[in-house]
Amino acid sequence: xxxxxxxxxxxxxxxxxxxxxxxxxxxxxxxxxxxxxxxxxxxxxxxxxxxxxxxxxxxxxxxxxxxxxxxxxxxxxxxxxxxxxxxxxxxxxxxxxxxxxxxxxxxxxxxxxxxxxxxxxxxxxxxxxxxxxxxxxxxxxxxxxxxxxxxxxxxxxxxxx
Length: 161
What we know:
By secondary structure, the protein is of the alpha+beta class. The protein has helices at residues 7-30, 91-94, 141-158, and strands at residues 38-44, 56-59, 62-72, 79-85, 95-102, 107-114. Strands 1-4-3-2-6-5 form a 6-stranded mixed β-sheet. The longest helix is centred in the first third of the chain and has 24 residues, at 7-30. The chain is elongated.
């Protein structure tokens, strides 16, 4: 015996499926608007290639936020990165931001770490007003390695052989 499928039942099933699908899409899309945290900004004087919107912001390896926007700073020299961070301390006073690479994939994220009291301030000089509180930055490990190599090469060039 073959049962006849009611067009009303089929229409109701398709309509409910579409409504549930739209609700799930809206819920997922709107969830980032309800995330806790405050907005901060940091400035880099190096390439941020591999860094993307919604990339992780980590504090000593733990996810504490997301990147909201990446743009050229008002001075057209630095790169401005706006982040939403959920930490319960004075992030702009006690932390320093740096770029880190996740494995060999080329994906970059921002690593926050505590700033030591005697640690030199390596962040770029900012001569304009920022929209959000500023977290100081330091050069990435890769940039520090290359600048160290450049210094060694310059010293070797100065040696009279």
